[in-house]
């Protein structure tokens, strides 16, 4: 029995990656769920909005790097983020103005808006590919590790080891700040309260003099910023590739549905549920088990539930289970 | 202008565009567009059955098309010698056992819902079932994949005529559609969209990774063809004399002849499907479907089981998609799971349906041809346009190179713009449904 080594291995391969991925999904799901809460449709362009924001940030990063600006040991994309935010917010607001707004006065079925968001997805995805191409891009610079595996080993002398990457720390800190601020905004400020009122009961909100166009504008701004943040953090942690961001749509939606579509409070635990199920079901527990089980009981197989390629199947299975047993999500979301 | 003349003119326009391709590029290229147009029309028809007849939003068409492709492999490929003895039967047993465990779990859940002991029993059943399933499955998969891995390593098919795979593909896709419909229908419409998006990705993941089934990303090539090979035609005396009588080149004539044969077969399927769905739509069943589509609450009040009817029509639409998928794999005579992209096999089909006119079979056919034509042609147009736009820039400048290279992605932007504009300004499509 070697509980300490087992814990360290678990932390390195499950806990840290799961936390990081969970944060990224939570931010993505928050953006999608906010739009759903106010505008009442699933925005299929959300994955490509994430890609657009990340692309804008990468382009700004290149500019800053060329100008010699650096905040080492932190990665340059962090100071490029405001540019990414600005570009994405402008893009999304322009989209709303040109594409979605004409529908609002006509009270169309939500499915028309979903279809329209599909068109927006095409256009945004195409623009991203035109501007930056389809290749895999690493854009993180600065220090890669807060502490490396070798450092951890010399400190503790354990057989197993943990490496803490800068991107992981940044993701967790940035998510905590963003979610904390959003919570404060939605519960404490006048604008945030009016948004929640609008989401709860549109007619009542209109009666009490809330300006719907302003609420819609703010929700798009928030969603664009959250999407950009989620995309940049994911890209810093892994890499940027347009098709991967499109494929993030499913786990992001799964997280939002698990948390209750339209319910911002639920999106964060939803993100963690999806991320940890994906990591746990595709992690090989052989190493952890070999520390925990007595000598001679060593497992022969990998002790892996599913091959890593089936990550997407895991988030889908969680989604289906939630749909079957609790269609409104763990935390009640909007039903209509 | 009456509706009929307008429709005729629209079809004539698309026909003229394709003939123009034949005149300016080659007849081979034009026929390629026609064949893919026919297949696209069938796919659009499948989506139209779900969306136009019942308002069901399926964004996983890629998965159902891919399942149809899988059927061609399982039906038409020759069995791999020794694969069934090595582990094929054991794999089959494992899969049946897995299904039985899930069925037992569902039964148990219904019996014991709520109680703690029930939940525990369920958990024990599922975990033990999964461990046993993997214990049966894993060695069998390894044994099958070890057979001649450079060329085979899969269980192969049944060695039956490839045409049989078309209905089988439909059945396979219908089965998957039933599973997904059972879960997500009756919930809010967005959930069906998200669920179908997921099932499509999973089908592709399974087809990419389960090498014992279809060799995964190593691809299956040489699926038997229902039509003669070009090489055989070029050696055929009757064909050669016919070609020389027409004064054509045997090589290109044989390619065109093969494509024409495919076109004829696809046309038969397309017409049969249109006839069937029109007949269905004008039967009492079709009237009920339209009643449900137009007012679900009223239909439910008349005693119609809306969710059940929706499931029925969802499964039918999926079957049509599966048939189209099997036909596609037959025409390409290969299965490449890596080539299934949601842009191409899901969202493009949707553009076809919306542009053609939801609820209208004729519209789906028109949309299938028109949008496929644009999808093929916008790429060279975009590149040409970009070359023109960048003509003033120095040759060899990296920016110019990048711009010309990326012009290929113009078609995503164009398709998106078409979809948005149609939905906004002509939501009923080019040929409105009734």
TrEMBL record, chain A:
Recorded topology in the membrane: Multi-pass membrane protein
Residues spanning the membrane: 6-39, 51-72, 78-99, 111-132, 162-186, 215-236, 242-261, 268-285, 305-325
Primary localization: membrane
UniProt entry keywords in alphabetical sequence: Amino-acid transport, Cell inner membrane, Cell membrane, Membrane, Transmembrane, Transmembrane helix, Transport
Locations listed in the record: Cell membrane
Pfam families: BPD_transp_2
Presence of the UniProt keyword Amino-acid biosynthesis in the record: no
Top-level taxonomic group: Bacteria
Keyword Membrane: yes
Family that this chain belongs to: Belongs to the binding-protein-dependent transport system permease family. LivHM subfamily.
Name of the protein: Branched-chain amino acid ABC transporter permease
Source organism of the structure: Shinella lacus
UniProtKB/TrEMBL annotation, chain B:
Residues spanning the membrane: 7-23, 29-49, 56-77, 89-109, 116-135, 155-179, 191-207, 260-281, 311-329, 349-376
Coiled-coil region: none
Localisation: Cell membrane
Pfam family, one: BPD_transp_2
Keyword Membrane belongs to the record: yes
Keywords for the protein's UniProt record, in alphabetical order: Cell membrane, Membrane, Transmembrane, Transmembrane helix
Membrane disposition: Multi-pass membrane protein
Principal location: membrane
Source organism superkingdom: Bacteria
Protein name as it appears in the record: Branched-chain amino acid ABC transporter permease
Source organism of the structure: Shinella lacus
């Amino acid at each position: 029995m070697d509980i300490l080594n087992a814990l360290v291995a678990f932390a390195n391969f499950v806990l840290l990656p799961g936390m990081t991925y969970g944060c990224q999904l939570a931010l993505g799901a928050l953006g999608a769920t906010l739009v759903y809460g106010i505008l009442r449709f699933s925005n299929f362009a959300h994955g490509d909005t994430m890609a657009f924001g990340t692309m804008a940030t990468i382009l700004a990063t290149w500019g800053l790097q060329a100008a010699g600006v650096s905040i080492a040991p932190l990665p340059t994309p962090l100071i490029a983020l405001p540019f990414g935010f600005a570009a994405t917010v402008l893009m999304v607001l322009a989209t709303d103005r040109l594409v979605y707004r004409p529908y609002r006065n006509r009270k169309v079925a939500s499915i028309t808006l979903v279809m329209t968001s599909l068109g927006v997805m095409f256009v945004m995805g195409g623009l991203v590919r035109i501007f930056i191409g389809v290749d895999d891009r690493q854009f993180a610079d600065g220090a890669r590790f807060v502490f490396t595996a070798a450092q951890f080993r010399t400190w503790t002398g354990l057989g197993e080891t943990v490496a803490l990457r800068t991107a992981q720390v940044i993701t967790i800190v940035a998510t905590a700040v963003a979610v904390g601020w959003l919570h404060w905004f939605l519960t404490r400020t006048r604008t945030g309260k009016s948004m929640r009122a609008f989401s709860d009961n549109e007619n009542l909100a209109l009666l009490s003099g809330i300006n719907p166009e302003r609420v819609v504008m703010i929700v798009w701004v928030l969603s664009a910023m959250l999407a950009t943040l989620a995309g940049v953090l994911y890209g810093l942690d892994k890499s940027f590739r347009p098709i991967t961001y499109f494929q993030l749509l499913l786990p992001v939606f799964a997280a939002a549905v698990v948390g209750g579509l339209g319910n911002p409070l639920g999106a964060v635990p939803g993100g963690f549920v999806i991320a940890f199920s994906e990591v746990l079901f595709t992690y090989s527990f052989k190493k952890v088990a070999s520390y925990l089980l007595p000598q001679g009981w060593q497992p022969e197989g990998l002790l892996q539930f599913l091959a890593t390629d089936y990550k997407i199947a895991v988030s889908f299975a969680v989604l289906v289970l939630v749909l079957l047993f609790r269609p409104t999500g763990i935390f009640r979301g909007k039903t209509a | 202008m009456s509706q009929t003349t307008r429709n005729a003119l629209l079809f004539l326009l698309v026909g003229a565009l394709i003939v123009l391709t034949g005149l300016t590029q080659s007849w081979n290229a034009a026929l390629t567009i026609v064949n893919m147009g026919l297949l696209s029309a069938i796919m659009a028809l499948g989506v139209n059955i779900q969306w136009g007849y019942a308002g069901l939003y399926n964004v996983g068409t890629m998965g159902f098309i891919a399942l149809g492709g899988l059927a061609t492999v399982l039906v038409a490929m020759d069995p791999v010698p020794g694969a069934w003895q090595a582990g094929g039967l054991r794999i089959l047993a494992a899969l049946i056992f897995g299904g039985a465990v899930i069925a037992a779990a569902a039964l148990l859940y219904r019996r014991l819902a709520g109680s703690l002991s029930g939940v525990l029993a369920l958990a024990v059943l599922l975990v033990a079932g999964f461990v046993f399933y993997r214990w049966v499955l894993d060695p069998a998969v390894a044994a099958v994949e070890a057979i001649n891995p450079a060329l085979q390593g899969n269980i192969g098919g049944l060695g039956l005529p490839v045409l049989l795979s078309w209905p089988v593909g439909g059945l396979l896709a219908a089965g998957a559609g039933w599973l997904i419909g059972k879960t997500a229908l009756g919930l809010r419409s967005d959930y069906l969209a998200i669920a179908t998006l997921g099932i499509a990705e999973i089908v592709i993941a399974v087809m990419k990774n389960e090498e014992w089934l279809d060799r995964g990303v190593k691809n299956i090539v040489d699926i038997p063809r229902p039509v003669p090979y070009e090489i055989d035609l070029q050696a055929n005396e009757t064909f050669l004399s016919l070609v020389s009588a027409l004064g054509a080149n045997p090589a290109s004539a044989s390619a065109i002849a093969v494509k024409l044969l495919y076109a004829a077969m696809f046309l038969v399927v397309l017409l049969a499907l249109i006839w069937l769905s029109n007949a269905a739509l004008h039967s009492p069943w079709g009237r009920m479907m339209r009643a449900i589509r137009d007012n679900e609450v009223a239909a439910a009040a008349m005693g119609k089981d809306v969710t059940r009817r929706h499931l029925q029509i969802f499964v039918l639409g999926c079957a049509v998609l599966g048939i189209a998928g099997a036909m596609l794999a037959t025409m390409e005579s290969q299965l490449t799971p890596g080539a299934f992209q949601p842009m191409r096999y899901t969202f493009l089909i949707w553009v076809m349906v919306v542009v053609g006119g939801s609820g209208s079979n004729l519209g789906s056919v028109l949309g299938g041809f028109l949008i496929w034509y644009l999808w093929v042609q916008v790429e060279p147009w975009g590149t040409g346009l970009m070359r023109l736009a960048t003509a003033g820039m120095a040759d060899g400048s990296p920016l110019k190179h990048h711009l010309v290279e990326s012009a290929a992605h113009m078609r995503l932007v164009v398709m998106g713009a078409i979809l948005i504009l149609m939905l906004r300004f002509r939501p009923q499509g080019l040929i409105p449904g009734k």
